[in-house]
Specification:
about 625 residues, alpha/beta, six-stranded parallel β-sheet, 24 helices
């Protein structure tokens, strides 16, 4: 029997840490580790990805949806460099992962040898634990601390593993006398923090007497849904959700006003504008312009990272602890707010908002509105479905049209905002939950960035269902150029791709919908297919992702962009005016609140486009 290698030690230790899956791509710089995986393949599933970034992103998705440690690996040099965005995603999205990268021979490091890159230096800005394995004797020590650090601080750890050490005998190399064998442990229990009782009472006192309380819940509130709803009932407070907290309470909860910020709802914005108290639970929402004005509201913040306290809004009482445990202790101390008017106003607003969303999502326009397939998706999602979103205009449709029910999971690259995270997240989720429905809602820009890894789903029999909004343009960039900068769109159009033929070429199933009538049947057929599938939904590239409240400067900059010569400006101008005027009867629509000013601006835009808009 061959000697036990340092790689064997590493793989065995990962198994002891409860790791059951690794994502990666082999190469000569990591082949010693690959041999160790081969020998333990019955205990450790290896998912062979087509690109190292996908491996890291899949580990992030696995970690996000399970709370467990995600593990990925790559070869040295360029393979390690490809991991970087996934490591960055793990850092800012707070996902515990361990990345293992090959390095060149330890005695040739620093000599300009083949793929001679100091991976540990490269990852220094993104890894919360970052070490080079210096000898076979050091493997256990650094693996234990890397895993423990990643899990405790919910972030990426990295180990650089020189080629010669990977295949070296586990007993080779020097061992210092104080490095006593067996001194390190793989035992780990996640800490559950609860603030001191006196601080909890201080928070209850701070909230007493306030009748317009708003709750902001983020990713850190996931798993505390029942407690959040109890808090909302006690304080008469609407729950506003940061997009990363979309599944912390279901979208059909009577207490939530849905998302906030650019993809948010009007009731969420109004709840922030009018509140006199704010309870922030596990959120670091970066869009501070959507929060109450500083000094407007007393603020209680719950977060298990003390350094995040007061980061986005001045905090009066800091409750450093886990969301569920902290809320459980806080709830009995709170007085019930008998004035329900603030909550009832938010609930009435949400009833109107959902009517507006249904109106936007059931139109028969051709090209099909992107809201239509996102809304239709609700009819085919299982009660325990896992939905992976993506970055782009598709984020708006996922936020507003997709209704996450209790028991479902949802996530996307929300703070890193990386394109092309949806498919890798789904690979990680489907690997972790092979019997659950996993659905990706993505755009054609994101999907074509990682297209090759659809074959990973085929190769590993992962029945991921991918809904691709095809409009042949980078939609979000297009609207950002026009609305935020006032510039004509430029450099955003893409060559079209037939996703159905691509899916079929991969040995999977492909479906297409170009109209609302075709949308439901195509989605149902895809979900019923026994294997991976792509649904291509052809949507209108000129449908704007309108914010809940259109601001004057946004209209001004859009006018400037159209005037300066944005392609298809006639179509865009008419479409926006039509949308707003069609919605004039809805109180939650921009058209419902300011129909005449918007119509007036719309007429000016149409004049620039050499068209006339009738009253």
């Amino acid at each position: 029997m061959a000697d036990r290698t340092a790689s064997d030690v590493l793989v065995d230790r990962l198994i002891e840490w409860g790791v059951d899956t690794v994502f990666g791509l082999p190469g000569d710089g990591i082949n010693g580790f690959m041999e160790a995986l081969r020998k333990r393949h019955e205990e450790l599933t290896y998912i062979h990805v087509r690109h190292e970034e996908v491996g890291a992103m899949a580990a992030v998705g696995y970690a996000k949806f399970t709370g467990k440690l995600g593990v990925c690996f790559s070869t040295s040099g360029p393979g390690a460099a490809h991991l970087y965005n996934g490591m960055l995603d793990a850092r800012v999205e707070q996902a515990p992962i361990l990345a293992i990268t090959g390095m060149t021979y330890s005695d040739l490091l620093g000599t300009a040898y083949l793929q001679d890159v100091n991976n540990d230096y490269m990852f220094n800005d993104v890894a919360i634990y970052n070490q080079r394995i210096m000898s076979p004797q050091s493997v256990t020590n650094v693996v234990d601390l890397a895993c423990r650090t990643a899990l405790t601080h919910r972030g990426p750890a990295h180990l650089g593993f020189p080629i010669d050490h990977q295949a070296a005998s586990a007993d080779s190399g020097p061992r210092f006398q104080r490095d006593v064998p067996g001194h390190s442990s793989s035992s780990y229990r996640p800490p559950v923090r609860i603030p001191p009782r006196a601080t909890l009472q201080e928070a209850a006192d701070a909230l007493r007497g306030h009748t317009k309380v708003t709750i902001l819940a983020g990713a850190g509130a996931r798993g505390a849904g029942d407690e959040l709803e109890q808090l909302a009932e006690t304080l008469g407070a609407p729950i506003v959700k940061a997009m990363l907290g979309k599944d912390c309470v279901p979208d059909d909860s009577p207490y939530t006003t849905g998302s906030i910020a650019l993809v948010g709802t009007r009731p969420s914005e109004e709840a922030m504008e009018e509140c006199d108290a704010l309870v922030v639970v596990g959120s670091g929402l970066p869009y501070i312009e959507f929060l109450p004005s500083p000094g407007q509201a007393v603020c209680v913040q719950i977060d298990d990272h003390p350094e995040r306290m007061g980061l986005r809004y001045p905090v009066d009482v800091e409750l450093c602890g886990d969301a569920r445990a902290t809320l459980t202790e806080l709830l009995p101390m709170l007085d019930r707010n008998e004035d329900r008017s603030f909550l009832e106003k938010a609930q009435s607003g949400m009833n109107d908002w959902w009517e507006l969303m249904e109106q936007r999502s059931t139109r028969d326009d051709v090209p099909m509105k992107p809201q239509v397939p996102a809304w239709a998706l609700n009819e085919v999602l299982d009660d325990d479905a896992i939905v992976c979103g993506d970055s782009g205009t598709v984020t708006t449709w996922a936020a507003r049209q997709v209704k996450i029910r209790k028991g479902m999971k949802f996530s996307f690259s929300g703070t890193n905002c990386s394109m092309a995270a949806g498919l890798p997240y789904a690979i990680g989720a489907q690997t972790a939950y092979p019997d659950r429905q996993v659905v990706v809602l993505t755009g054609d820009g994101s999907m074509t960035m990682q297209l090759g890894d659809f074959l990973t789903c085929v190769q590993h029999d992962l029945p991921v269902k991918i809904v691709v909004m095809r409009n042949d343009t980078l939609g979000l960039i297009k609207w950002e150029q026009m609305v935020f900068l006032g510039n004509p769109e430029y450099g955003v159009n893409m060559a079209p791709l037939d996703f159905v033929k691509f899916a079929e070429a991969c040995g999977a199933a492909g479906f297409r919908a170009e109209t609302r009538d075709e949308c439901g049947p195509a989605l149902r057929s895809a979900m019923q297919h026994d294997g991976p599938a792509i649904v291509e939904v052809v949507v209108d590239p000129h449908e704007p992702p309108l914010p809940a409240k259109v601001k004057k400067d946004q209209v001004t900059k859009l006018f400037s962009a159209l005037k300066e010569g944005t392609p298809n400006r006639n179509r865009i101008a008419l479409q926006m005016v039509k949308d707003v005027l069609d919605e004039a009867s809805f109180s939650e629509s921009p058209g419902g609140r300011i129909p005449e000013p918007i119509a007036k601006v719309g007429r000016k835009i149409a004049e620039v486009a050499d068209r006339q808009v009738e009253d």
